Each structure stands twice: as structure tokens, then as C-alpha cells.
Amino acid sequence: MTFTPKKYFGQHFLKDSRKAKEIVSFLNIGKCDKIIEIGPGKGALTQFLISLKADIKLIEIDADAIDLLKNQFSNIEIIHADFLKLDLNSIPWKKYSIIGNFPYNISTQILFKILEHRDSIQEVVGMFQKEVAERICSEKKSKKYGIPSVLIQAFFKCDKLLDLNENEFNPPPKVKSSVIKLTRNNVQDLGCDYRKFVEIVKTSFSQRRKKIKNALKKFTNLSDSNLDYMMSKRAEELSVAEFIELTNIIENSK
Predict the structure, then answer these.
(1) Per-residue pLDDT tens digits for 108-146
(2) Who's near 153: CB < 8 A, 6+ residues apart?
(3) Residues in a beta bridge with 77
(4) What values do phi and psi take at 164, rounded to 5?
(5) Which one of 181, 202, 219, 225 has the largest count of C-beta atoms within 10 Å of its C-beta?
(6) What domains appear along the chain, each with residue ranges and CATH number?
(7) pLDDT at site 32
(8) In the chain, what are the helix, strand and coil shares in percent, each to the nearest 5?
(9) pLDDT for the residue 228
(10) Which of 233, 160, 158, 155 is nearest to 198 (CA)?
């Protein structure tokens, strides 16, 4: 059965089976034996997932890809859905891992949905545009450190594992790609209001060239002496722990 990649789904299929096998090997099956693959496409990763002793569900938006997958993997459940619109609570698993060659045009949205369901997700092995992968995994004081870095690293350990060139995909994307692994840490509660934490992180980085005291002008009563050492810094200089501290001070200064 012939299958043509669709640009509107952001499909770029991995051609190298050795790389596909390596990507699957990054999963820690001993930690979690339930796996969701997002956007399996032609099954480059799926063919190696089936050798694992795990329960697997595939989430695919493309009906043509589903027909292909059903012919290859008749014993695996395939959910025909847009991952971003799918209610993950409908999947009867308390804990699971996620893997996928994520469409680059929605990869950040995928990350934010993963954050929403962080208490169910043990780990994520995902293919991203290299620039996005570096932003997720970057540390403070880096120009690539930003909103995704802080929000993801608050709940996940981030590791960049593998780089891939454009010619390793069909069709070749216009950017280089990287595989990263997100491993859920033990943080259940940040110790601050999570929604306020997100608001402060986003506001701080919306004016990343400005010092914190200028970026956060919308918040009143920022004269607390505990803030003095942070006020002269820019957002990219604050760690996750410092953003949590900042959130608590702002909340308590009302």
C-alpha cells in the first residue's frame, strides 16, 4: 500500500530503522509497561515497540496511516484522533509513557498537554525540531532558556539524546531534529499556586530583555526585601526554584 506524507499533518517519516530502534531503546520499560505513541505514521517506531513487553496504544489523526498501521499491527489498539483534542482521561491507565516523532508545528502544544497530565506520565521520548529541543533542555543564563524550559523542568528531568539531519526523513524537513527524554521527577506540588507560577513565568519572559522589576510591573507591592536580589536580574537568570520563590513572595504580598 502506497502512502504519501501529508504536509498539512506535518508528516516527516524517519527512514533509518537503526535510528528508530535506538529511539525506542531510550524508553525505560522497567519503570512503566504502558506506552502511548503519538503520530506513528508508517510505523517506524512502532515496529520496535511491539518487541517490548508492554501495552501499546497508537494515536493517529491520518485515516490513510491508520489503514497502513492496521495491516502491519493488527493486535495494537489504534485511536483515530487528534492528540491535542483527545481526552486523555478516557484512557484507562493510571501511569504511562509517551513516545513519538512529533509534528513540529504542534510540538509545543503537545508539551503543554503533557504538562496538564504530568501526574499520569512517567516519561516522554520525543522527536522535536532541534531548536525547540534545546530550548526545553537549556539551563538558566542561556539565551535559549525560556517559558518551556522552566515549566517543563519544574516537573521533568530533561535530557537531549540524539541529533538527526534533514536527509534522515521523508520528506526532509527544513530544520534539524533532536530526540529528547523527559523523566517525571518526584515533585507533586511546587509549593506555590501553579496557575500564578505559570502567569509569572510567562510575564517575565514576555519582556526577557528587561529586568524582573520592570517585566513584573503589573504585580503590585514588589518591595519585599526578599525580592531585592532577584529584582535586578532578567528572567533567563532565574532558576525554577527562584521562580517558585518569586511566586510565593508575590502571592504573600497581597
Answers:
(1) 999 999 999 999 999 999 999 999 999 999 999 999 999
(2) 240
(3) 57
(4) -130, 145
(5) 181
(6) 7-184 (3.40.50.150), 194-252 (1.10.8.100)
(7) 81
(8) 40, 20, 40
(9) 72
(10) 155
